[in-house]
Amino acid sequence: MSDPFQMQRELRYGAPVCDEILTGRYFTIGYSWYFRQAKWVLEIINPNAIFEWEVERRDNFRADIRVPRRFRAGLKAYASSGFDRGHLAASANQDELEIQNSETFLLSNMSPQKPNFNRRMWRDLEMAIRDLNKKKSILETYVLTAPVFYFDQKIETIGDETEKHGIDVPIPHAFVKSVLAEDSRGRLKLWTFEMENKQLSGNLEDYLVVTYDVEQKVGGRFWDRIASGDIHTQKKKPRKMWT
Asked: What is the number of domains present in the chain?
């Protein structure tokens, strides 16, 4: 069976459109050749991990050779840029096996993030999602993460556009995480967050947004394999935080 939506567990409830689907062992990347990074990444949070580093963090950042060279980021693009190689599927979400953790360090799973964003509010959100996944009532937690570009704002890049293949990587203005949790009774609960790529303050719930609005910014429908009547109410009005 060649349809990745039938093969990959994390695509069970659908995914937005993209230029190329890169199926991984433990998560899936919807790649954008135009932006030379993921349009979205979709994962299931490891249901068995205790999140105390089952395996050592690999830190083996590397280019994804499945993407043609002229459309992919390399390590040089991030060197001395002042931006972190920000994980979209978090390393700590995939830590049971070495190969599982290693795969999160492919640069196709990275976007340029401000250090005071990546290491603070973004990290806090990742940790909170893992806490959600630990709740006894939750069977599976799906997370869709996407860079956001605001086209009414200037788009800056890292890298060197004068190189042979013109590899410069656009810097997202913001990032989205849409969290879909399925409980033991088959009920689905949806939370969607939008955070600007800068140092942020306040609480995580300050960044809950209307999913329909974010779909327009990202350019694709989220969780489109769920019957619209079963998800419509949650998409049009943010629900309260789980913490």
From this structure: 1
